[in-house]
Amino acid sequence: METLYSNGIWMAEALQLKTRNYEDFWLIATHMGDPKAAFLLVFPLVFYLHRRTGIAIIWVATISEWLNLVFKWILFGERPYWWIGESRLFVKNRPQLQQFQSTCETGPGSPSGHAMVTAAVWWVVVSSLASFIHTRSGSKVLAAVPYLLYTVLLGVLGLSRIFILAHFPHQVIAGILAGLILGVFLNRTVPECRPLLFHVRTSMGLLLGTLIIHALLEKAGLNLSWSISLAKRWCSKPEWVRMDTTPFSSLTRDAGALLGLGLAQFWKPGGWTLPWVPKTLCLALSSMALYHISRFPLPTIPPVLFYTLFFLKYVVVPQVVMVMVPGTVHLLTAKAKQD
């Protein structure tokens, strides 16, 4: 593994040196590939275009990110930004590398969560888009364009993760392959119109199942907090180590979003039928609301309070997109027609 890791470090150095002028581009790319972007950016945009695909985004994002958490606990993957110091292989010939605010994630590195969730989520989007294009045009060439863009997207995201020292190349590749497989499979099992009890059971199953796995691994003598201590030790700036990048943050986000999806479908099964102009207004209002929700600061002490509030934050996300905003717009437009 040392050879694999070392080659990854030198690749990251070459990428940083040769593409330093595109730093902002790489940072934007890695930000867009953050798993939370699937909930806060991709979900509302896709939902107002096609309801079933929007619901699939939440479903695929939650399950793929949860599985990524379990894989990381089992595989114990290193991250480049701490492995450079821990390995002590570069004392005499230290690579010229720079860390960024997005670098200092606290979970293990394998497989890449950004690559895995993005590959799964965007497979749902591009396969739906390709099917729509083929149905309308009958052209297989045009229908292949979304898949080409999908490949470019994953390539850019993967390079961005290597550029900022968050992952080694093999971790990115593993994440993409796992995400692609999950995207294909999970897109066939979307819980559209499933009862609330299904979502409650699944959400609680993710929470309790993860806690059980965590307890069993800890009992087996594995220290699952090892990566957090390394992140704090080797991150360039202490403030870059954030609680919302910890494994339990991912867990509470997934469980909360899944429960929120069930509640949204329970409050208003089938949603509202809105014309394109009100849908555009819904998208704008939802995006503004989710922006402020995501930026809302949460207390980090005690940790249980933080994770509870983080869970509730993502319970709210589907409510805003699927119930609150479209319900309000529907009510206002209906009154306008009556007047």
Automatic annotation (TrEMBL):
GO terms for biological process: gluconeogenesis; glucose 6-phosphate metabolic process. The chain crosses the membrane at residues 25-49, 56-76, 115-134, 141-162, 168-186, 198-217, 276-293, 305-325. It is a multi-pass membrane protein. InterPro entries: Glucose-6-phosphatase, PAP2/HPO, PAP2/HPO_sf. Substrate binds at R79, R161. Keywords: Endoplasmic reticulum, Gluconeogenesis, Hydrolase, Membrane, Transmembrane, Transmembrane helix. This is Glucose-6-phosphatase. Its EC number is 3.1.3.9. One of its GO terms (molecular function) is glucose-6-phosphatase activity. Gene3D superfamilies: Phosphatidic acid phosphatase type 2/haloperoxidase. The keyword Cell inner membrane does not apply.
